[in-house]
Design brief:
homodimer, 673 residues, alpha/beta, Rossmann fold, six-stranded parallel beta sheet, five-stranded parallel beta sheet, magnesium (chains A, B), EC 2.2.1.1 (chains A, B), Transketolase (chains A, B)
């Protein structure tokens, strides 16, 4: 259909959708940057979705049972900003639209969840939004089972582009969604046949409908500019028990001189192009102005969910006080009071019993006491359940027939798992953790970065955290991954040395509200080193004195995780030689860096030589603690890895790479001279 | 079919395949670790492939026109070690088999290309091998077009498991292979319905044949234990003009008590289980012993390609001397002599002309002169060609109808691109480079790490390398990515400050034989700072004095990339105040770290205060150069990022985050006191 036909067929719809298109044109022109074509192409779908289907109330953007709308094709951010402005979200004023992409504006270049209610997810890195949506849908299914349909019963809608579908993570996501029959998930594919480099055809000829069908999806193909077809397709999608994909054939940058071209994907800023486009739309208002009748129609759309929201609130109030409080607590992401007591009890028990276990096993011991008192946890693993020790007895398997289950078998999909966990955390009401080998942080990286940027307290259970993994060799042995996690802003990296520290690390992770945590856990058994029970959470200081020097303090050994045992043994050697040696356990560099100077100085005073030991690369942050913080270049050494690992039994590797108590002691002695 | 029927139907085949199975059992038992089930399940496919189809000569493992065999399911490493041992590869002695997974053995836990000829690719991280294979097939198609069928005409065979197919990168790979109609690529899917966590069904119900068909593949489904069916399927696959997927229904750990269970996926080590399995096979030889008739049959298999290889060598010798030399040079990965002269000429030209361009544009200027003299380069981009500046005029597009083309439109597939580039580099005869935004290093990470581990000189063209990207905001602004690249072993990270440094960095990258390079390039324009032409490649020193202090040297400013301009302006401010200030440009920390102490001391002498400036996090390696190398804690400062960026014009962001000449100068002054 050409524009004239479209306008004629549905004149009211046309002008309402044109409001999105013209706001996009105006905002992108004002910013002189951005992406015009996608919001223009998908305005019809968005108009029908928001006006006829999406359950929301612009006055209550955080209503727990709203439908979620995720713009996976985040570069088309003006689509969502236009919708939020038109429907009357308080935060999105016309001023914000005019300040699109400017410093301090809520209307960032790509939508950021931390900037705006109504933006459910930070998108832009392609493939993430559609993969987050699987987590949203899992959370909704689970919470519906937990709290009942009266409190939780909504859809998750996604707009995804060709970029999202080409990214591999989308395959992980759609396969998981298909396997789990997430019937309340609806994905619109903006099938505009254009990418930045030109026609999609130059890089892709995938039969996307067939691909989605192969993953178990309900698939429809429609004209993405036909409001009737869009409406009918959404109706059908809602009826299907499978996740739905609606392939919407659209014209990118419709009506502009750049229509159906890769130029239209980017910023249309030329005044004459904008003028001719508005002409084609029959749009006569000045820039940024929406005719009153159109604006008020949109505001009604923004208010139409009010009744339903009020009814929902009434239903919530009908629940028992306890249930209301529990619903509020879980959606607020607050840990229950019992958490600290079960952690404390476990710490006491293990500091007395002193088990010699791998910290991955320690983590399981923690989860065994935590999961029963935190019903909001949803665990899982990327097909390494028995290795990551992420499954506890009480969880049950989340499955089509058991939505109450709290354990997700993610399959061999580290990236999809991480993205789904982000979606769950963003949805609210659940607290996800998931496991894989620490080395496969690499696979999950794009989503892990977004956990940090989106301020979501996802917990990554990363086991087999060094050459201690042994025979599987360098492809599976992280050496630079502590450096990667520690260099990432707003991320807590924990490498506990025993069960007590593991419990403390979990306590911190589970009480975060805006920061993800990475648990780097050993494959190999480690002794309990925290043998004296202390109520205080010492890991919260980041580093502390695990063993004080006897006699004159000549050396400080600093270590993390599995190497704290080595440091303690090195201390024995040094003390036997009369060298007073302090051992500092440093389970979290980030938290130690946050302590005040006085505390840091108490732990790392000037004077003694310093030797750090960690089975990773020195670039993992060690220069600061060895050379800085009152350290001296001539009086410090690092014992760790300087390259990739190798395939052999773990004990052999530690010997071969010189990460031994003997070497640590020798280094300290050499520095003392 | 049960084992008895299989044995009876093809008794000779059965025993030959059993040799693989029993070697696997014996080696895994000796190592007390490893994965028995996969080699046992796929032994029939491997036996038919190697004996009837694979073009190879065990005596010449590096023959340039051999068929490539890639074990994407790398945990089944004993499959390939058994095959190499049985067919008589010199490096794989029985001793090596007995030392499986031990220190110093070539037979590492997962196959490592650096350990063994015959192992084309290091595999283990799932999804990589199948994605590498696309690069192998592209290289073969291109080299066939370039050198003719007489010299290059071979297949690429892959064994992939469920894990490989679940990993998202496999979707990127199969879609790219389908788009490019890589007809000489054949993938065997080990369809054993088992993963570590249990039945595949618990995490995946994808219709894999339909999924591959949707990507444009030729698909067959067979019984993976039936040698006749296997043979016929390979014949049909070879005839198809599309890439082929053969779904091989197999029994993991066939014949063992752990058959068809996830236990069978891991190490079968119990003596009685091994004994009963061998019984079921009708295998009576002692551990590690292969009956002479079976071993000699396998050795004939290993020698059957000899004739073809000798004929190929004769064909090579028929070529002109120049062509032979060129073939040898490109497969040896040697840069042509002309490279240094075109780089030198460009350096001279730009140091005189002093263009003010973004370093991504500088990179294009380099490629414009390099690509014509390096016919082995194959460029590409993950759908950001115009932004990455990776396409030069002479390349032509690699496509179904133009295999001579040297530019690949990878689509929005950073990970698939990186993995394909690894495959190309491993294949030999081509030198791949590919572009995306530096922030999307995250997506390519698993493959980038493998470039380093596999010692492949892939070049990653990473543009938009900081907040200088501007309005697209923090999802697209790298801050920790320099840290990530620099922390990765065997990786050269370059951040050049102008066109001259960019040319020098490229020269280094293109002459590497065993190290990948990352080019971190600016979006924004930068002045030419190297205005005095020098023949010497200064980037090769890693860091050097760009501007010396006038008067008493009181401050050293250290910077990289786009911030060198800021350091130079700060120097102007400081010199105007009479503070002698040196500016050190540090385009490669890795190369600087490799210099001897005397050189490093010359560049970073003790005494002056030091201020580093880089629009990334300090964890990117700065502590060493500020606190270490004769630095002093009280006399150093870092100007850069401490968290994520934001969406706004680049100049505004630099102001807001304080990465300015004024701030750098102020910091230096404060330190001088």
């Amino acid at each position: 259909m050409d524009i004239a036909t479209l306008r004629e067929a549905h004149p009211d719809h046309w002008m309402r959708a044109a409001a999105i298109r013209t706001l996009t044109l105006d905002a992108v022109a004002a910013a002189n940057s951005g992406h015009s074509g996608m919001p223009m192409g998908m305005a019809d779908v968005a108009t029908v979705l928001f006006s006829k289907h999406l359950k929301f109330d612009a006055a209550a953007p955080l209503w727990a049972d709203r439908d979620r709308f995720i713009l996976s094709a985040g570069h088309g951010s003006m689509l969502i900003y236009s919708l939020l402005y038109l429907t009357g979200y308080e935060q999105v004023t016309l001023e914000q639209i005019k300040n699109f992409r400017q410093w301090g504006a809520r209307t960032a270049g790509h939508p950021e969840n931390t900037h705006l209610d109504g933006v459910e997810v930070t998108t832009g890195p392609l493939g993430q939004g559609i993969s987050n949506s699987v987590g949203f849908a899992i959370a909704e299914e689970h919470l519906r089972a937990r709290f009942g349909k009266k409190l939780q019963d909504h859809h998750t809608y996604v707009i995804a582009g060709d970029g999202c579908l080409m990214e591999g993570v989308s395959q992980e996501a759609i396969a998981l969604a298909g396997r789990q029959k997430l019937g309340k998930l609806v994905v619109f594919w903006d099938h505009n046949s254009i990418t930045i480099d030109g026609a999609v055809d130059i890089s892709d000829r995938t039969d996307q409908p067939m691909r989605f069908k192969a993953a178990g999806w309900h698939v429809q193909e429609i004209d993405g500019h036909d409001p009737v077809a869009i409406d009918e397709a959404i109706e059908a999608a809602k009826k299907s028990s499978k996740p739905s994909m609606i392939a919407c054939k659209t014209h990118i940058a419709i009506g502009s001189p750049a229509q159906d071209t890769s130029k239209g994907h980017g910023a249309i800023t030329a005044a004459d192009a904008i003028a001719s486009t508005k002409d084609a739309y029959g749009w006569t208002s000045p820039a940024f102005e929406i005719p009153a009748d159109i604006k008020s129609w949109w505001e009604e759309v923004g208010a139409k969910g009010r009744k339903e929201r009020v009814e929902w609130e009434a239903r919530l109030e009908e629940q028992s006080a306890q249930r209301q409080a529990e619903f509020a607590r879980t959606f607020a992401g607050e840990a229950p009071k019992k958490l600290s007591s079960v952690i404390r009890a476990l710490k006491k028990q293990v500091s007395e019993g002193q088990p010699k276990v791998a910290t991955r096993k320690s983590s399981e011991m923690v989860l065994e006491v935590v999961n029963p008192v935190l019903p909001e946890t949803i665990g899982g693993s990327a097909d390494l359940t028995g290795s990551n020790n992420t499954l506890t007895a009480d969880l049950g398997t989340f499955d089509i027939e058991n939505r109450k289950g709290r354990y997700v078998y993610y399959g061999i999909r580290e990236h999809g798992m991480a993205a789904a966990m982000n979606g769950m955390a963003l949805h609210g009401g659940v607290r996800p953790y998931g496991g894989t080998f620490f080395c496969f942080t690499d696979y999950a990286r794009p989503a892990m970065r977004l956990s940090a940027l989106m301020e979501q307290p996802v917990v990554y259970v990363m086991t087999h955290d060094s050459i201690g993994l042994g025979e599987d060799g360098p492809t599976h042995q992280p050496v630079e991954h502590l450096a990667i996690c520690r260099a990432t802003p707003n991320t807590l990296t924990f490498r506990p040395c025993d069960t007590v520290e593991t419990a403390e690390a979990w306590e911190i992770a589970l009480t975060q509200s805006g920061t993800p945590s990475v648990m780097a856990l050993s494959r190999q058994n480690l002794p309990t080193l925290r043998t004296e029970h202390k109520t205080k959470n010492l890991v919260s200081m980041g580093a502390y004195v695990l063993a004080e020097a006897e006699g004159k303090r000549q050396a400080i050994l600093i270590a993390t995780g599995s190497e704290v045992e080595i440091a303690m043994k090195a201390r024995d050697i040094l003390q036997a030689d009369g060298i007073g040696t302090r051992v500092v356990s440093m389970p979290s560099m980030e938290l130690f860096a946050e302590q005040d100077d006085a505390y840091r100085r108490r732990i790392l005073p000037p004077g003694p030589v310093r030797v750090a030991v960690e089975a990773g690369v020195r670039a993992g942050g060690w220069d600061r603690w060895l050379l800085g913080e009152r350290g001296r270049e001539a009086k410090q050494a690092f014992v760790g890895m300087s390259g990739f690992g190798a395939s052999a039994p773990a004990s052999e590797l530690y010997e071969q790479f010189g990460i031994t108590a003997e070497n640590v002691a020798a280094q300290a002695k050499a520095l003392i001279g």
